[in-house]
Specification:
Elements lengths: L2 E6 L8 H15 L3 E5 L9 H21 L5 E6 L7 H15 L2 E6 L10 H11 L5 E4 L2 H9 L7 E3 L19 E5 L8 H6 L6 E5 L12 E3 L16 E4 L10 H6 L6 H8 L4 E4 L4 H8 L2 E4 L5 H6 L3 H19 L2 H17 L1
Parallel strand pairs: 1-2, 1-3, 3-4, 4-5, 5-6, 7-8, 7-10, 8-9, 10-11, 11-12
Helix pairs in contact: 2-3, 3-4, 8-11
Length: 354
């Protein structure tokens, strides 16, 4: 069975977690023997009507090329959401057509369900509901996301669980030490990370910040902003004792669309912290909470109001165990173990059905 992965023919913006996650999957897929099938249609037309027409034409040409090029009885891996998002109507027709024409199997690795976090509006909602069912198999994050997809009408037998995203890096591990301090990495804009601005006036611990969009607060010695660093290098640069995985505009709970989304996804920043050998602090309502408890890789809290006390209650013995387990899991993520196991499971299912 010939195996392919759909790749982006356009040059993506560098340095953010979104592109890091996709680039790592592509690297691992190619290393596993999948052949690249580039798609050249741009991500967006930016609201320009003329560019919208070109975008749809480019999208159509992409899918005609895919249909002509792929061999019969092959497997094609796609990273979802697929771009351009507004090309979903066309994709919903072309994917089943190519599957019938070439007797091939399309598989999607789900990075995000944007309809759950309110991104890309009606197009994302339509794609999550109508494009995802077109795939023969879906690789999703965890049991919570699996349950959500089943509620959306995806048959359970189509779903394979990935676990945490792998995080490829040649950077060394960081050397965390027990202290009342956390790392906060990612998009630091107030509209995305409102909780940060809610707690920094009276920080419960030392906050080490990494990323774009931070609005500085001069003179606050408990907040250290380290700037934006390349995703490849960041695991070795983490200075806090724990990695905080939180989202939304509230310090009391993970609120709003971004916060509620943590109930379903495994954020890439969790993989970043673990790739650095740093244990996690996560919200009790998140899908990650089950993993953290089961693997012993951090602390689970209900509210950021508990953060200071929770950190201060950790003993040296407990922290040594957490960092050992975090580095152990981080090593697996650096090696791409999670994706390889999920891909093997998908291939085995397809081989059995063939």
């Amino acid at each position: 069975m010939k195996r392919y992965i759909l790749t982006a023919g356009w040059a993506p913006a560098a340095g953010n977690a979104f592109q890091k996650a996709r680039a790592d999957i592509e690297t691992l897929a190619l290393a596993s023997g999948l052949e690249p099938l580039p798609l050249f249609a741009p991500q967006t037309a930016g609201g320009n009507r003329l560019k919208q027409l070109w975008l749809m034409l480019a999208c159509l040409l992409d899918w005609v090329r895919v249909g002509v090029r792929v061999r019969r009885d092959s497997m094609i891996l796609a990273q979802y959401p697929m771009y351009p998002v507004k090309g979903g109507v066309l994709m919903r027709r072309m994917i089943p057509l190519i599957q019938r024409w070439k007797q091939c199997k399309f598989v999607a690795l789900v990075h995000d369900l944007d309809s759950l976090r309110g991104i890309d509006g009606a197009s994302a909602q339509a794609n999550d509901l109508h494009l995802l069912p077109c795939f023969h198999r879906l690789i999703c994050h965890n049991e919570k996301m699996q349950a959500q997809l089943i509620r959306q009408g995806i048959p359970e037998h189509k779903l394979v669980i990935l676990g945490l995203f792998d995080y490829l890096t040649d950077a060394g591990f960081s050397t965390p030490s027990l202290a009342a301090s956390v790392n906060i990495a990612g998009n630091l804009l107030p509209e995305k990370s409102g909780y940060l601005y809610a707690i920094r006036e009276n920080p419960p611990c030392m906050l080490h910040l990494y990323g774009n969009g931070y609005v500085p607060d001069e003179g606050n010695e408990a907040v250290q902003y380290h700037g934006a660093m390349p995703a490849q290098a960041l695991p070795a640069c983490l200075q806090g004792a724990f990695g905080l995985v939180w989202d939304g505009d509230s310090a009391q709970t993970c609120a709003g669309a971004f916060g509620e989304y943590l109930r379903y996804n495994n954020p890439h920043k969790a993989s970043l912290y673990l790739a650095g050998g740093v244990p996690l602090v996560v919200w009790s309502g998140s899908a990650l909470a089950d993993i953290v408890r089961a693997e012993g890789i951090g602390i689970v809290i209900d509210s950021l109001a508990q953060l200071g006390d929770a950190l201060n209650a950790v003993t040296m013995e407990q922290y040594t165990h957490m960092t050992y387990k975090a580095r152990e899991m981080g090593t697996a993520l650096r090696q791409g173990d999670h994706f390889r196991k999920a891909l093997e499971s998908v291939i085995q299912c397809i081989d059995v059905e063939s």
